[in-house]
Design a protein that fits this description.
4 copies of one chain form a homotetramer. The first copy, chain A, is α/β, with parallel strands linked by helices. The first copy, chain A, is built from 8 helices and 17 strands. In chain A, the strands form 4 sheets. Chain A has a 9-stranded mixed β-sheet, with helices on both faces. The interface between A and B is large, with 92 and 92 residues.
Chain lengths: ~325, ~325, ~325, ~325
């Protein structure tokens, strides 16, 4: 079990990983649900059966309107109208607001549609990347997720395993560590599960303030790229990390975000980004379990390549 | 059981209704959860136990970027970047988009925060309406709903009861009809339940096209104002209507939206607006039940007076 | 002098017009100013010499936030903050707002950058249309107009000539009519001039209300396509019409907006859209002249394909 | 002639300045043009007569979409559509974009409407500040500037006088220095003139990068507050500074932006903010004069409290 930076992966090795985990055609040539196909009715039912305490907890970061090193495109939030104290004539008054945001901001909890990533001219399932133009995608948009992601969430809490507050930027998590976390928490990630992966990035932000976690800054902690084989074998349905689950900088030659590329483009995996689990870990510790029902519903945005959302864990 | 327009309610009668259903102080002077307090852990547990078929269905209208008589403020949706076919060098490319919308549009499924309505200088729980300024609210914002609304949803389908496709604009639904619908569907709305109320407005829109459903147009169908007493007695936790559950024009003297005012301002009820149940009713008919788990999570927007969202029913 | 719909122009005739008026290479292979090159210092000086009365008048339509048949994408205008009467402690308070708009709306006075139109894979001057991607243009953006358009404006007022309030949708204006208007007004459009062209579209809107002036509606009045030869011979520097100067529907086979295409793509002409001259015509009549200094400054938006602006006529 | 920080001004002295320069009622009780009333037709004519070289130059900073210490609210600029290479059928294609921005950003050249500042419950001319609510102002909005600001601009270039590249944050410019600059440049600011005031802030930004020029940062250079008396005596019509013409921090007790408050609220002066003169100074040196025609047209935004714009100097 190592905490050090991941070993170097060549472009050829990456292509081999891509071929190994590739799900193109697995669920039909026009499939847009990808690994969500692993979630069958019995998984939904069993996930709901985990609701015993009657508690729910958000896994979203509050929407951030303040520019910062990790928030180059802050959300815009304005009042459309407040109450008008000068013209109050005893009738009800209505306050209203307006929200605007990019849908894939590093600082905002969001889900990616499968059309989010093109690789070598192709989308997931081998569809042509030319389906995504300046007017939006004609396929693999958010529509596939319109009825929400519902299933069992399993949190693997790596800082808990390591006995640290958070992983430092650049650190990578190996398959061995993921399995050690399973053992430590008494849980096993399996077919149709939503993999909730914690590096503690948001706790670090809360305690130390925002930092530039991009390629031109300090980077971030995430998974080692070879864990993709483990996710593939385990038949993971969806991936919910804090940060985006990637180490920055990447250890793959010439590929900045190899895990996203493999997950979304090769596997058709539903991937969310930039969640936070600081409230969740407290509930897990109190309930002494790291599995729960997850219900996560992107906005119903036709042509959306992604959506801010507020995924909920229910115990 | 009448389908005719509601009888006239005077301002004095409205004030009496207000006093009768008023929950101010009921859950403490600083309470911001209002009728969500009716949902106790056992309700959450029992709601989850309704998940037997393993099916989920959205109750949201797809986000609408086309201006129309019921969509004066269309959402804005632009690509931040598409794939650049001219500069493809074999690396992953990322498509990204941008979404902007008012949070209380008639054409967009959304939830209202309790600070959405001020009446006679007060918010819910007697707090001063001056807490909501042009910079946003300092209390009763979306924060109270951050961890989602989770409970049992009960659909009362009035067009089904009446044997019509939809209710016509201006028609009002009485308490007697609500109880007749319960009987016809074999379900009973009770403490801590989410009241899912269907007039068929969205089906009408799908079949006949958008119409001006406001005060300067043809209006819309909704509840008779006296049903508020029934909702109060039944201890309804939340209200999820298609349209906004109100008849337009209102039958209350000088009050344009009396039901919202009573629900939000007097009762502290979590109210959503402008849902659609066209997919839901099919599932209800197939499953032969009109109760289900509901998980509905507004965006986690501090200072929000409302939020677009995608509420999910799970069977 | 005809008021009837224009005679049909074939695709081949259009291509011949294109070749005839084509300015590619005329001002160098990397030129981005196009017909603005016609404006030399003496033109600027002579235009300023027209300022004798000391009056200025806007040629812009007020920004429109109300959706309508000619305003599918209304501008968004919100207060960022108003004065807070509840917290006034005797210090200055600042009101601030926010504006958002598409840059080429039919209902908003704007200028087009030369990169606005691609035709058969090319931009003006033969540059590749691939220079404009989802991330914006890499050339022929608003930068060429950063220091404003300054010159002599000449108004040709066709409703005045015809003795009508406005031209009806679909009507076309011929070269003969343009010359008749010159004669009637005692003015001659010449090298380096800004051609201010009035159909009365905005007056019609003010009196009769908005109408759908697009291809799926009633259309609009504009120039006959062959007037492009006249504009080319006269060495017009810029084109400022109410509406967009085109008849809708077009009389050119397979080309929806032939005049814009010839002006921008073939000639490199600075073209504005959707101005209004209702205030201007009053001043022209009072001053008894139809020539004036024009100063028109787009926003200084790098990468802009167009900009809302407020062009000013000075007498 | 001092470069040191300004001497302290008490609240009482500020109130005395306010009374001394107050123009309330001077041009009628409902006047909204304020000091623009100083510009009479002969001033407009004389300004135009300065156009001899036939050159125009922008005084605007390019719109900035990159967040930074002086750009907390970056503008948003997206393509609505680019050219679609995949569907090119030989017809013209149109590229279009979208722009959104707050109207008073420190990093964006803009003009303030008179309703921008309320002081002790009043707007300019003694109108009630309650006219500005969350829905916008009902008076003193941009409408007063709809037909543009047209007149003589006089640049006073303080770094040139001092022989430095720029003034450092916190430095204040005295009346004596303004008059010394006049003498050095052979120009005199007079009735109806537009006062173009250069501290070199933008040059500093271009060379050293953005800095936090607000109260929580390093501050900025500007005028000493007592120069307001000189502007009043000289009957200045409008104020066009780089930065906002204020020293930050202010030397007035309890008033963060005293000069703006006196200019806008007491005098009714048309004030722009955050211009840049780096191109202008080159032209001034070449033409050996520091006076020129200015034409500056805010967007025609009803209810606007301010507007991005691109003011033009013409020589």
């Amino acid at each position: 079990m190592t905490k050090t930076a991941p070993t170097h992966v060549s472009k050829a090795e990456f292509e081999e990983l891509f071929q190994t985990v590739c799900n193109w055609g697995r669920w039909g040539t026009d499939d847009e649900r990808g690994t969500l196909n692993y979630i069958r009715p019995e998984h939904v039912r069993r996930a709901a059966a985990l609701v015993r305490a009657g508690r729910s907890v958000s896994m979203a970061v509050p929407i951030n309107t303040v520019a910062g090193p990790d928030n180059a495109h802050p959300a815009l939030h304005y009042m459309v109208q407040a109450f008008d104290v000068h013209s109050d004539r005893g009738e009800p008054q209505f306050s209203m607001d307006f929200l605007a945001s990019e849908c894939h901001g590093d600082c905002h909890t969001h889900i990616d549609a499968l059309c989010h990533i093109g690789y070598q001219g192709k989308l997931y399932n081998g569809k042509p990347a030319s389906a995504v133009t300046s007017r939006g995608p004609t396929l693999q948009d958010l529509t596939a997720y319109a009825h929400g992601l519902v299933g069992r969430g399993v949190l693997l809490d790596i800082p808990r395993l390591r006995g640290v507050k958070w992983l430092e930027p650049g650190e990578a998590v190996s398959t061995a560590e993921l399995e050690a976390a399973e053992q430590a928490q008494g849980v096993r990630l399996g077919e149709g599960d939503i993999f909730v992966f914690r590096t503690g990035q948001h706790r670090r932000r809360l305690e130390l303030g925002p930092w530039n976690n991009g390629y031109d800054g300090e980077g971030k902690a995430g998974l080692s790229v070879d864990t993709i084989l483990w996710m593939h074998e385990r038949k993971v349905a969806a991936f919910f990390p804090d940060g985006d689950g990637e180490t920055v900088p990447s250890n793959v030659e010439g590929i900045a975000y190899p895990i996203h590329t493999l997950q979304i483009n090769a596997m058709g995996m539903a991937c969310a980004d930039s969640l936070q689990f600081e409230e969740l870990v407290k509930v897990c510790e109190e309930e002494e379990r790291w599995e729960f029902q997850v219900v996560a519903a992107p906005l119903r945005l036709p042509g959306g390549t992604g959506s801010l959302f507020n995924p909920i864990a229910i115990f």
